[in-house]
From TrEMBL:
Protein name listed in UniProt: DNA polymerase III subunit delta
Organism of this sequence: Clostridium homopropionicum DSM 5847
Family: Belongs to the DNA polymerase HolA subunit family.
Superkingdom of this protein's organism: Bacteria
Coiled coil residues, start to end: 170-197
Presence of the UniProt keyword Heme in the record: no
GO MF annotation: an example: DNA-directed DNA polymerase activity
Leader sequence residues: none
GO cellular component: DNA polymerase III complex
Alphabetic keyword roster: Coiled coil, DNA replication, DNA-directed DNA polymerase, Nucleotidyltransferase, Transferase
GO BP term, pick one: DNA-templated DNA replication
NCBIfam families according to UniProt: holA
Length: 342
C-alpha cells in the first residue's frame, strides 16, 4: 500500500489514477485528500455535473456503473466517490459481499474519463488494511492513511513550516516530532497554531511544549471512544500501552477525567444550540479537535457522561485515600464506564 506522501508526490506531478481506494482511521484527512484529487482533475466550474457520491451501504454494480459511465459535462474528467465502502472489509454480510465482488470486477472496466474513489474507515488506529484491498493494488492506487514516522515525519513538518516562511533547528524539530500526534491532518492544525503563536519570531522548544497537543491526548480519545462502543478490552489495551510507556495511573486518570468533563460541556452546549466555533472558542480547543470531540459526544447521553465523570472522581478519591492497586482501580473504572446505562 502507498502512503499519503506518495499520493502528494503523484498529485504534484499531475499523475492521475482511474481508481483510488483509501483506508484509515481518520475520515477527515481522507475526505481532504479526496477533495484535492477532485479539485486537481475535475473542472470546478461544472463540479455539480461531474461529481457524484454513493453511500457504501447502498452501493451495487448498477448504480456504480451508471454513475461512472455517464459522460462528463464540459470537463475532461468526472469523479464518483463511494463513501464508507464497508464492502471492502474482509468480513461483511452476504449482501455487501455480493456488491464487493461485482464492484471489484468492474474496476478494470472504469471509463477513462471517470475517476472512481472509494474509502472505508478503520474502527481504530491498530486496524490493518483488508486482504481485498491488497489484492486490488495492481489495478488501483490504494492509500493507507497511516501515521507518519521517522524521517517522513521530520521532512513533512519541515516542509510545512518552510511553506509558512518558518525555519526550525534540528533539536527543536526533534522536540516537535516527539510531541506532535503523527497524523497529517492534526500535524497541519498543530503547526498552524505554532505558526500563529510565533508569527513574528523564531520557534523555540518552549513554544512547542506550550502549544502542541501531546500524543497521549489521542490515546485517551481512543480509550474513551472504545468505552462509548462498549469495548472494554480495547480500552484496557490502551491503558496498558500508556502504563508500559511510563505514564502514571493518576496522570492517566486526570486525562480521562478531563476528556469526560469536556465531552459533558460540549454535549450540553450542542443541546443548547452552540456552534463548533463558539465551543472551540469558549473551551480554547483547536477547531479540528473540537469537531472530533463533538462527534464523540454524540455517542453518549448527558447522563452517561455525568456518571462517567462521577465514577472517575470516585476512583481518584480511592487512589488518594487508600493503599490500593492503582492499575486494578483504573481497570475497574474502565469496566464500570462501559456498563453505565442510559
Amino acid at each position: 500500500m502507498k502512503d499519503v506522501l506518495y499520493l502528494e508526490e503523484q498529485l504534484s506531478k499531475n499523475r492521475m489514477s482511474n481508481c483510488y481506494i483509501f483506508c484509515g482511521s481518520d475520515e477527515h484527512s481522507i475526505k481532504n485528500y479526496i477533495n484535492k484529487i477532485v479539485a486537481k482533475f475535475v473542472n470546478k466550474d461544472f463540479l455539480d455535473f461531474n461529481y457524484s457520491e454513493i453511500d457504501g451501504l447502498n452501493a451495487n454494480i448498477d448504480n456504480v456503473r451508471n454513475a461512472c459511465e455517464t459522460l462528463p459535462f464540459m470537463s475532461e474528467k468526472k469523479a464518483v466517490v463511494i463513501y464508507r465502502a464497508n464492502f471492502l472489509r474482509d468480513k461483511v454480510d452476504k449482501a455487501l459481499e455480493s456488491s464487493s465482488k461485482e464492484i471489484m470486477q468492474y474496476i478494470n472496466n472504469i471509463p477513462s474519463e471517470c475517476i472512481l474513489i472509494m474509502y472505508y474507515i478503520f474502527e481504530n488506529d491498530r486496524e490493518k488494511e483488508s486482504n481485498k484491498v491488497r489484492k486490488l493494488e495492481k489495478a488501483v492506487l490504494a492509500i493507507k492513511m497511516s501515521k507518519l514516522k521517522g524521517n517522513s515525519l521530520s521532512k513533512k513538518v519541515t516542509d510545512i513550516l518552510k511553506d509558512k516562511g518558518k525555519d526550525i533547528n534540528k533539536s527543536d524539530l526533534a522536540i516537535l516530532c516527539n510531541n506532535v500526534e503523527n497524523n497529517l491532518d492534526i500535524i497541519e492544525n498543530e503547526l498552524e497554531k505554532l505558526y500563529c503563536y510565533t508569527i513574528d519570531r523564531e520557534i523555540t522548544g518552549k513554544d512547542i511544549l506550550d502549544i502542541i497537543t501531546k500524543k497521549n491526548d489521542n490515546d485517551i480519545f481512543n480509550l474513551v471512544d472504545f468505552i462509548s462502543q462498549r469495548k472494554p478490552q480495547k480500552s484496557l489495551d490502551i491503558l496498558n500501552e500508556l502504563i508500559f510507556k511510563g505514564e502514571i495511573e493518576t496522570s492517566i486518570l486526570r486525562m480521562i477525567q478531563r476528556q469526560f468533563k469536556l465531552l459533558f460541556i460540549i454535549k450540553l452546549g450542542i443541546e443548547t444550540g452552540k456552534s463548533k466555533e463558539q465551543l472551540s472558542s469558549e473551551l480554547k480547543l483547536n477547531p479540528f479537535i473540537c469537531e472530533k470531540m463533538m462527534q464523540q459526544s454524540s455517542k453518549f447521553t448527558l447522563n452517561q457522561l455525568k456518571q462517567n465523570v462521577e465514577a472517575s472522581l470516585e476512583t481518584e478519591r480511592i487512589l488518594k485515600s487508600k493503599s490500593v492497586d492503582s492499575k486494578l482501580e483504573m481497570e475497574l473504572l474502565i469496566l464500570k464506564s462501559t456498563t453505565i446505562k442510559i
